[in-house]
Amino acid sequence: MTVRGPALGVAGALLLVVSLALAITVGPADIRVADVWSVVAAHLGLGSADLTPIRDGIVWQLRLPRTLLAAVCGAGLAVCGAVMQSLLRNPLADPFVLGVSSGASTGAVVVVVLGVGGGAVSVSAGAFLGALVSFALVLLLSHTLGGTTDRVVLAGVAAMQLFSALTSFVVMTAADAETTRGVLFWLLGSLGGAGWTDVWLCLAVLAVTLVVCLSYARTLDAFAFGQDAAAALGVSVARTRLVLLCVTALLTAALVSSAGAIGFVGLVLPHAARALTGPGHVRLLPVTALAGAVFLVWVDTLARTVLDPQEVPVGVVTSLIGVPAFVVVLYRTRRVR
Amino acid sequence: MSGAAGAAVSGAGLRADRVGRRADGRLILDGVVLAPGTGSTVGVLGPNGSGKSTLLRLLAGLLTPTAGVVTLDGTPLGDLPRRTVARRLAVVEQQADTQVELTVVDVVRLGRVPHRRAWTPTSADDERAVHDALQRTGLADRADQPWHTLSGGERQRVQIARALAQEPRELLLDEPTNHLDIHHQLDLLALVTGLPVTTVVALHDLNLAAMYCDEVVVLSAGRVVAGGPPGDVLTEELIAEVYGVRAAVSRDGPEQRPHVRFLGTLG
C-alpha cells in the first residue's frame, strides 16, 4: 500500500509538530502544551510569556533544544541510512553498521581526550575527520574484497570493531575518570547535553544534505539494478557516489559530534518509510526524514523518563528497539530472494 | 547493403572502429569493426570468453576501449555526456535483479531517468513513453505486479520495456535469452527484432541468431572471424573452426535461413 506524496508529507509534518510540543511537556516539571507555545512565541518576540523564569528556562534552555536536536538527529540518521542503502544496494547499510559513527566517535574522543589540535580543532571537526577516515576505509576495504553487497557490510563491521577498539584504547590509556564518564556519552549516544548551537549546526547540515540528496533522488532510483544499470541510464556513478557519500559522512559527523553514536535509526526507519511511500526517492527521502524525526523525539522522551530520575542513553533505547527490527529486515530480505 | 563487419562509409549511428580492450595484460578484444545498418538486428556470436560481453559493454560506453573508438553519429562515446548517450542507446543485461521492492511500472519508469531533470515533475512525454513501452511489450495489464513475483522471461520483457521507455535509437542486449525456456526465447527475440530500432544482440544459440538476425558477426578469441548475413556466415567449416564442433547446416528453415544440427565435438 502506498499513500500519495503530498498528503503523507503534510500528515508527517503535522505529526512532527504535535510530537515536538507534546514531548516538551513530558518530564518532572509540570509544563502544558500552551506553556510551550507561549514560551516559543515570547522568544520569537510575539507577545510575552507569563511563566516564571525557571519554567521558561526549562522549556527554552533544556527541553526545546533537546527535543529539536532529537528530531534533527532522527531525520538526519534516517536520511543517511536511506541514501546509503540505495547507493550500496544493501538493505542493511546505515551510518552505524558501516562504521562511520564509530569513526566519528574515535575522532571526537581523540580530540577531547588527547587534546589533539590544541583546542584549534573542535570536537565536531575531529568527529568529521574520523567519519571520513572510517568511510574511506570501508569503501577501500569493500572494493578490495570484491565490492559485493555482503563485502560492504563485512568491511563496515570490521571498521566498526576497529574504531570501537581504538576509542576504548584511547579512553583506557589517556583519560581520567571524569573524562571517561564524558566519553561514554559518545559511545552510547545521548541527547542530554543538547544546546542551541548543536541544534543550529545539525539543522544547517541536515538542510544542505537533504537538498543535495533530493536533487539526486531520481539518480538514486536508477541504482536499483546496480551500478552498471545506473551508468547505462546516464548516471555518473563515481561522481554520484562521491557526492552522496561525502554529504552523508558530513551529516553523520555533525550528528555524532552533538549527540554521540545513536544506532539503528538509520537502518530501520528507511524500511518503515519505504513501506509507506514505495521505492521512489522523491517521496521516500522527505518521508524518511519526518519518520526519523518523530521516532527519535519519542524514543528520547522515553529514554529520559522511563527510569526517572535516572536517564537511559538514547542510543541504548534505539538499539533495544533496533535489534529486533534488524532481524525483521534480515528475514524479509531472505524471503525476497 | 551495409556490411555489419565491413567499414561503413557514413558515420551515422553507432559504430565500433577497430576497437580493442586489454585488461590485466590480456587482450580481450582486438580490432573489432562493427557498423550496424539503421534499423537492422545484428547478432554477436562466439564461444564463451570470445569477447561478446566486452564488445557490448564497449558499445554501451560502460567500458572504454584501450584501442580504437566507438562513435555515435561520428562523435566518440567518451566525449558525450552519459545522459546524452543514455537517451540514444539502451542496454538490456543478461540478468537484472534488485532487492528493492519495485513494480513493473516502477522498473519501466527508470527508463525515463536520462530524460528527466532534478526537481521537475513527471512530464506528459514521460507518461506517454512509459505507456507506449508497456503496450508494445504486452505488459500494460501487469503494470502493478511486483518485480520479484515475475518469471525470468517476464523480467527480461520488463527490462526491454524499460529500455524502450528510454526511446533509444540503438538497443544493446547481452545474451537476453539466457535462462529462458524456448517459448520465452522465441517470444523475446520476435519482440526485439520487431522494434523500430537498431539492435545489437549477443547470442549463444546459432539457430536463434539464424532465425532472427539480419547480420551476424562471429568472434573468436577477441577477433572478428566472420561477418555478414547468417546464410553466408553460418557454415559447417566456420562452426568447426570456431566452436570445435561437427555440424550439418541445412537451408530448410523459414526464408531459406540456415539451420544448424550439431553432430558432436571435433577431436
Query: What would the principal axes of the Cα set say about the shape of chain A?
Result: globular
Total helical elements of chain B: 9
Helix proportion range of chain A: over 70%
Estimated helix fraction of chain B: 25-40%
**How would you name the oligomeric state of the polypeptide chains in this document?**
heterodimer
Q: Which residues of chain A form runs of ≥5 with pLDDT under 50?
A: none
How many strands in all of chain B?
12
- CATH architecture annotation name of chain A: Orthogonal Bundle
Name of the top-level CATH class of chain B: Alpha Beta
What structural category do the secondary elements of chain B indicate?
alpha/beta
Reported by name, the CATH topology of chain A is ABC transporter involved in vitamin B12 uptake, BtuC
Task: Give the CATH class of chain A.
Answer: Mainly Alpha
C-alpha-based Rg of chain B, rounded: 19 Å
Beta-strand percentage range of chain A: under 5%
Strand order of the largest sheet of chain B: 6-7-8-3-9-10
Say which CATH homologous superfamily of chain A is assigned. Answer: ABC transporter involved in vitamin B12 uptake, BtuC
The biggest chain-chain interface is: A-B, 29 and 31 residues
Main beta-sheet annotation of chain A? none
* Count of domains of chain A: 1
Strand residues, percent of chain B: 25-35%
